[in-house]
Design a protein that fits this description.
Layout lengths: L6 E4 H10 L18 H17 L11 H12 L2 E9 L2 E10 L2 E8 L2 E8 L3 H7 L12 E4 L15 H11 L2 E12 L5 E3 L3 E6 L2 E7 L4 E6 L2 H13 L9
Antiparallel strand pairs: 1-5, 2-3, 2-7, 3-4, 4-5, 6-11, 7-8, 7-9, 9-10, 10-11
Family: Belongs to the EspG family.
Keywords: Chaperone, Cytoplasm
Main location: cytoplasm
């Protein structure tokens, strides 16, 4: 079962709907800030929210939420596999989630107070997430692995930094046009929610670079086009490491 057609709704309406239907908590990418309201304001908000949902055509003749819409919302909260992250372009940041359950997938994009939902192929989750990034080519150069923490100043002579460290410092200093961090996640058979380490990327004047954990003590910085990002995210999905959500 899939969403009948692409839809746009407010962040507040999505949160209200998930709570009213007892489906679950909004994903961190889609979550809104909790706000206390007097009872009269809550009632007025409920009416506006129901009107927005009705305008989307999500209620059947009995006033019950359409089964296909319910199945879509369940994917947002209980997906067995996910790819998500925060994508910055200049001063604007959008949250993106691709989630899969069974044979179906969903794309959710949050931009400000609005959320766009659209059905996608179950096997295209990572590719669809990466497809939301700006069209920036991979930067030049080869992957570089360096220590997370530079050596103490007392042990390094001025001008004696390793070439790889100097190269990473050069990349960090490049003017940026955007960036973000991307995650993979999965629920195991016990229902535990496992989130990978982030894949952080920077869009620079010279192209796109990603930073990932190589080991506990080392980071790898490498050029990354769309296919490289999809590969890295897929690898992250296969080896989830944490039982908590980023936020």
């Amino acid at each position: 079962m899939v969403l009948p057609e692409p839809a746009r709704l407010s962040v507040a309406t999505l949160a209200w709907l998930l709570a009213a239907e007892r489906i679950g908590e909004p994903h961190p990418v889609l979550a809104s800030t909790a706000v206390w309201r007097p009872r009269a304001e809550e009632q007025a908000l409920d009416e506006r929210t129901r009107d927005e949902i009705a305008a989307l055509g999500w209620y059947d003749r009995k006033g019950t939420l359409d089964a296909e819409v319910t199945a879509t919302l369940v994917m947002l909260c209980r997906a067995t596999s996910e790819f998500f992250g925060w994508i910055s372009r200049g001063e604007a940041t959008a949250g993106v989630l691709t989630a899969g359950l069974g044979r179906h997938g969903i794309l959710a994009v949050r931009d400000g107070d609005a959320v766009w939902l659209n059905h996608i192929g179950r096997t295209a989750l990572a590719r669809t997430l990466v497809g939301q990034l700006p069209d920036v080519p991979a930067g030049p150069g080869q992957p570089i692995t360096v220590p997370r923490t530079p050596a103490p100043r007392t042990t390094v002579r001025v001008g004696a930094l390793a070439p790889d460290v100097r190269r990473v410092r050069h990349l960090v200093a490049l003017p940026r046009t955007g960036g973000g961090e991307l995650y993979a996640a999965a629920r195991d058979r016990l229902g535990r929610y496992l989130v990978s380490e982030p894949v952080r990327y920077a869009d620079t004047r010279d192209g796109r670079y990603v930073t990932v954990s190589a080991t506990q003590d080392q980071l790898t910085v490498s050029p990354a086009g769309p296919s490289e990002l999809v590969t890295r995210l897929t690898r992250q999905r296969l080896t989830p490491e944490r039982e908590n959500r980023p936020g």
